[in-house]
Amino acid sequence: MHPILVLDGEFFKEISGNIGLTEDGFSVLVDDILLKHVGSIVKFFLDLSTIYFTDDRDLGHWLLCVTSKCVKELTLKNHKHNHYTLPFCIFDCLTVTYLDVTNFIVKPPSSKTLFPNLLKLTLKSIKFRPTKANYVLNTPLLSSLTLIACNGVHLLTLSAPRIQFLTINDSHDIHAIFFVNFSNVRELLFREESYYKEGRFITWSLLLYLCPNLTRLVLINSCIQVFNTSRERNIGEVTHYLEDPNCVDKQFENLEFVELRKFEGTQFEVYFLKQILAYSPLLSRMIVEPSDDIDVAEFLDLYEELMMSLKASPRVKVIVVPYGQVA
């Protein structure tokens, strides 16, 4: 009757040591636990990495059982080379509010509303395989979304009118249009270190324009490079664009906190920081983490340049943190 079931690697290792499970015994064990369980399951955590010979049918059977027991928090981990397909029963589960999935294939069904009551969604190493391009994923109550190393995101249009917290980490096929529906986002963390393909050119000014209500923004240095140099031959064009007074046509009225990690002293980073300082009247703190490769004297000159630049906020503090440290 326990409402919290955590079947992780440590659990399977301990059980295997105690009762000497055979390879196919792991699947039998999960079957046994769920079939004998009585009552609701509030939280279910399953790590498939140590389970042998599991297929999509086993997984579908288990999650159908779990979603029928009013589960609220669901975590599925998979560190195998093969990908399982996320069962359809999860998409329309009325009770799940927290979902964390690692290393799965996601084929969303043809439905107008998916994850009807989901509040927080974390997807890692996911391969999206929708039935058609520009598939609209409608998550009406979602407030927090994290995408890490996901593939096929460009095939989706996410409708999440209540989303406030957005984290994107190395999901490098995202197009600018992906951000169109995120006007209510308050906090954005964006890390992109993979090669950015032509046709997916995003500038940070466009990003801020599409997310006008941001209060907190965290970018990794490579984001600045990626947003502005889809190809080397575009550097001059982009530089001209950034120097144009119309590059930023309005203030970032709600921005209070900006953090730039792995600062390397490029012209794009300096433009970015100066524009943020000049157009953010509520900005209270700007954190800059110099790259471990940047020369100290060079960075001090750039820091002095920033301190002398125009500032819209009279109370802003520019803070330098050593590489790899948390401010």
From TrEMBL:
* Sequence ranges assigned to domain FBD in this UniProt record: 254-321
PANTHER family in alphabetical order: F-BOX DOMAIN-CONTAINING PROTEIN, OS02G0105600 PROTEIN
This one is known as: FBD domain-containing protein
Organism equals Solanum pinnatisectum (tansyleaf nightshade)
